[in-house]
């Protein structure tokens, strides 16, 4: 029988054990996501996916000799297009940046300088960038951040082929849909998966929407803020959730985990 995996969640370890395990400055993963509308079939707590990916990555890193642990997940995303999502909650960009600064600052003040942020929400990108830029300027410490779904979108054509990837990619569909079916299938209700429908034009100028915050004027993309409910269909945006599958989710997850493990190794060897 294989030995049980070590506990990597700092929140689940007793204080005395934490002091022992963290005294030599291991890698600390900080997962974050959002609480928003991902469609009628998908749990609103999409932060659950970055949390589970972080735990997998830390476990794999430990097994390969790189000490690595996971901080509690940040469940609320930075304010963007989803403020009107019923049951959701957002933080303003200023609040998000302040919270991140305090969390990262707490780790750094205690000598934990090897930090990796695992982000699962577009509204977190700017606050994260401002936070890690300030850390680099003020302390000379590099804090990498991996935007999980940006990386996963880029993987889809290689995993599925360009045509299949195009049919499946979208909010409420891939890549989150397949990763969710791999990591938390018990929380996804397949009977509620909607038919794919194109996103709507923006309601003010009537321009065709490319995605949240982007419209097209002739052949040129232009930034134009819209609320998700104005252009999405019950939280989904064009991709077909019914085509998502756990096998694709496993392939995406494996690549994301390997990326984090490599970052952890580099931080340990070079800093």
Task: Name its key features.
3-stranded antiparallel sheet; alpha/beta; globular; single chain; 42% helix; 271 residues; 9 helices; 4-stranded parallel sheet; Rossmann fold
Question: Strand portion, in percent?
Answer: 5-15%
Structural class: alpha/beta
Output the number of helix runs.
9
Order of secondary-structure elements: HEHEEEHEHEHHHEEEHH
Low-confidence stretches: none
**CATH first level of the domain at 10-169 and 244-270:** Alpha Beta
CATH architecture label of the domain at 10-169 and 244-270 = 3-Layer(aba) Sandwich
**Record field, number of beta strands:** 9
The dominant shape is globular
Give your account of this protein's structure.
With 271 residues, this protein is α/β, with parallel strands linked by helices. The chain has a domain of 187 residues: Creatininase (Rossmann fold). The chain is 42% helix and 12% strand. It has a 4-stranded parallel β-sheet with strand order 2-1-5-6, sandwiched between helices. A 3-stranded antiparallel β-sheet has the order 7-8-9, with no helix packed on it. Strands 3-4 form a two-stranded parallel ribbon. Helix 4 links the parallel strand 5 and strand 6. Helix 2 packs across helix 9, helix 3 packs parallel to helix 4 and helix 7 packs across helix 9. It is globular and about 60 Å long. The mean pLDDT is 96.
């Amino acid at each position: 029988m294989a030995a049980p995996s070590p506990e990597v969640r700092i929140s689940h370890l007793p204080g005395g054990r934490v002091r022992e395990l963290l005294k030599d400055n291991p890698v600390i993963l900080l997962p974050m996501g959002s609480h928003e509308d991902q469609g009628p079939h998908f749990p609103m707590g999409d932060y659950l996916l970055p949390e589970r990916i972080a735990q997998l990555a830390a476990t794999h890193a430990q097994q390969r000799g790189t000490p690595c642990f996971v901080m509690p997940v940040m469940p609320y995303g930075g304010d963007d297009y989803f403020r009107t999502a019923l049951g959701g909650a957002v933080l303003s960009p200023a609040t998000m940046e302040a919270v991140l600064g305090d969390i990262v600052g707490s780790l750094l003040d205690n000598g934990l300088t090897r930090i990796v942020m695992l982000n699962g929400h577009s509204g977190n990108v700017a606050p994260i960038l401002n936070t890690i830029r300030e850390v680099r300027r003020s302390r000379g410490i590099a804090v990498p951040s991996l935007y999980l779904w940006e990386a996963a979108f880029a993987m889809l054509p290689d995993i599925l082929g360009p045509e299949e990837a195009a049919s499946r990619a979208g909010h409420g569909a891939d890549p989150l849909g397949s990763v969710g079916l791999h990591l938390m299938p018990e929380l996804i209700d397949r009977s509620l998966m909607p038919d794919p429908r194109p996103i709507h034009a923006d309601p003010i100028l009537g321009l065709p929407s490319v995605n949240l915050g982007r419209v097209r004027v002739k052949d040129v993309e232009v930034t134009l803020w819209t609320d998700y409910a104005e252009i999405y269909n019950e939280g989904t945006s064009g991709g077909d959730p019914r085509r998502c599958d756990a096998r694709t989710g496993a392939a995406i997850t494996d690549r994301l985990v390997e990326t984090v493990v490599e970052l952890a190794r580099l931080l340990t060897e070079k800093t």
